[in-house]
Design a protein that fits this description.
The structure is a single chain. This protein is α+β, with helices and mostly antiparallel strands and 583 residues long. It contains 27 helices and 16 strands. The strands form 4 sheets. A 5-stranded antiparallel beta sheet has the order 1-2-3-4-5, with helices on both faces. A hairpin with a 5-residue loop joins β7 and β8. The longest helix has 34 residues.
Length: 583
């Protein structure tokens, strides 16, 4: 995680900032003994379970599990990269960061140049709206109900019919043609030279989460095809990894703890302008896992609104399962035939649109209704086909009660026995073991060994006892992979004679679940008895647990060897088993 910044610099920054002061700049904190508490900013809760420890310089939510040091908080709350978080805290603490190495500067410079070119292009397109040649484009926006303030806020613009309008504008700015081409704004002619990619179109700049222009969407002013074209993929713009309007909507999404997803630019613009601001657009494509995970940073509650056509339904059905796999709650709004969100709001008003959202169908009901229109459930074959499409979705729910309820409801709809549907679930498990096990197995956190967590707590706070632990245990002795990773890191720090408090360790950890494990361990209550005695007991328990697990694994391998008739392997395993028993 530290990237190109030396460890001593990171430690200096963390040593100078107070995590409670940093976090209190974003959310109100209340004193709770030696710690501070607050309602968690990362999930909705009524009772405060978000704790900040000035002593340990970490935070942890006992509700959603989020936790980390000051760098991690800025990364999670502000959606910053690690280096950006470091830069932010370096400025606050007065620490001067080392200069970027030439190779890093080159890559950074290239991306910066592309962002700058896109920004210049967006200014050019926006200015075009005031030209006589773009009167039709400006009138189009106004007739569609987009007011001048929104045109300015979203930097809407127009490309005229000139073949080299943008080229001429950027030439004056001394921007090389090769860079403009790499930004995806111009195309090469067969016989030499270049021409503008976007001509005679409305322009919609596409922003990243920091409101930088990544690329552009362009719509024709007539009925010609293609109706929309977007910038090609570039080093800064990757399709399927961004959502239109998220930079404007992120705060409203967090405040409302929900997001409305629509399909196109105008479907986003009209509701947003009229006051529904927890909304984003998927840019006309089926949602990707990356986009869903991007939304997951802000909320776990999603309402999808798509055009009521076959293509829209198919895109929605594909996206629904991604939401379930990522643990989000998803509902779907079906608009009347012939309406998209833009037209619906213009015709019926934002209040009617909000009402539709409030009455959104559950995932189960939406998918069932769509499939019932495709399959005749009065026939045996139709029932089987519908069940075949519903069961994989139902099986992705981790909540056993919810899964059971959906099986019951599907049984009633199809008029078949619940046992038959559960039997099909078993077949699904056999046919797709990996996905099935992912859907039904308990989370790793539920299997945490409390002894391992307690010992890590003591390692991080009673550093004088770490040498004893290192003499008696290895990282491989820990059953939980996260615990093993943390212990290995602590031992490495010990050998180098470095401090290894919770906050410092997190600079070396990318995985959120490992950081969460550290925070959970750090906030554990330790028995008031002799700490050395507790450590000795923990070490003994961990050793016994390792032997137990090893014995059980050998026992299973011996059974397999007996079943397969592999005498040589059986003898080796029996010898290993007897040695283990002697120990």
């Amino acid at each position: 995680m530290p990237g190109k910044i030396p460890e001593n610099i990171l430690e200096d920054i963390l040593g100078r900032v107070d995590i409670a002061e940093i976090i209190s700049g974003y959310i109100p904190l209340k004193r709770a003994g030696r710690n501070f508490k607050a309602n968690c900013p990362f999930h909705h809760e009524k009772t405060a379970s978000f704790m900040v420890s000035p002593d340990r310089q970490i935070y942890h939510c006992f509700g959603c599990g989020k936790g980390g040091n000051a760098f991690r908080f800025l990364m999670d709350y502000e959606r910053l990269g690690f280096l950006e978080a470091v830069e932010t805290l370096a400025k606050k603490s007065g620490v001067i960061l080392p200069e970027v190495k030439p190779q890093d500067a080159k890559a950074l410079s290239f991306s910066t140049q592309l962002f700058k070119i896109n920004e210049l292009a967006s200014v050019f397109y926006a200015q075009n709206l005031n030209l006589p040649a773009a009167t039709q484009a400006k009138d189009y926006f106004l007739k569609r109900g987009i007011n001048p303030e929104s045109i300015k806020t979203f930097k809407l613009g127009a490309a005229t019919d000139k073949w080299d309008g943008l080229i001429g504008y950027l030439k004056v700015k001394a921007v090389p043609l090769s860079l403009i081409e790499k930004a995806g704004l111009i195309l090469a002619k067969e016989n030499g030279g270049y021409y503008d990619r976007f001509r005679s179109r409305l322009i919609f700049p596409i922003f990243d989460i920091k409101s930088r222009v990544l690329g552009f969407g362009a719509r024709v002013l007539d009925n010609s095809l293609p109706k929309y074209i977007n910038s090609p993929e570039t080093p800064i713009y990757v399709k399927g990894k961004n959502l239109y309007g998220l930079n404007f909507a992120k705060d409203a999404i967090r405040d409302n703890d929900s997001v409305v997803i629509v399909e196109g630019y105008l479907d986003f613009l009209m509701p947003y302008q009229e006051g529904l601001q927890n909304i984003v657009a998927s840019l006309g494509t089926a949602l990707t896992t990356e986009q869903v995970r991007l939304l997951k940073r802000y909320t776990h509650n999603v309402v999808m609104v798509y055009d009521p056509d076959t293509a829209g339904e198919l895109a929605t059905l594909r996206s629904l399962d991604i939401f379930v796999e990522e643990g989000l709650n998803v509902k779907v709004v079906s608009l009347p035939q012939g309406f998209d969100p833009d037209l619906f709001v213009r015709k019926n008003g934002i209040a009617a649109f909000r009402e539709k959202i409030a009455k959104a169908s559950s995932l189960f009901d939406y998918k069932l209704n769509v499939l019932k229109l495709r399959h005749n459930i009065n026939e045996t074959e139709g029932k089987a086909r519908l069940a075949c499409e519903m069961l994989p979705t139902i099986n992705k729910f981790e909540d056993a009660v919810l899964k059971s309820e959906y099986i019951r409801r599907l049984s009633e709809e199809l008029k078949v026995q619940e046992a038959a549907l559960w039997e099909e679930i078993k077949k699904l498990k056999a046919g797709n073991e990996k996905n099935y096990s992912k859907a039904i197995s308990p989370k790793k956190e539920a299997e945490v060994n409390p002894t391992e967590k307690l010992l890590i707590k003591l390692m991080l706070e009673e550093t004088g006892l770490v040498s004893y632990i290192k003499e008696n245990l290895t990282p491989d002795d820990f059953q939980d992979e996260r615990a093993s990773r943390i212990v290995g890191l602590v031992f490495e720090f010990l050998e180098k004679g470095r401090e290894f408090g919770p906050s410092m360790l997190m600079n070396h950890i990318d995985e959120e679940d490992v950081a969460k494990f550290i925070c959970e361990s750090a906030f554990l209550e330790v028995p008031s008895e002799d700490k050395e005695k507790v450590v000795v007991n923990c070490v003994q328990r961990i050793k016994k647990e390792k032997v137990k697990v090893h014995r059980e694994r050998l026992h299973e391998q011996i059974k397999q060897a007996q079943h397969s008739g592999d005498e040589e392997q059986l003898n080796l395993l029996m010898h290993e088993f007897h040695d283990l028993i002697k120990k």
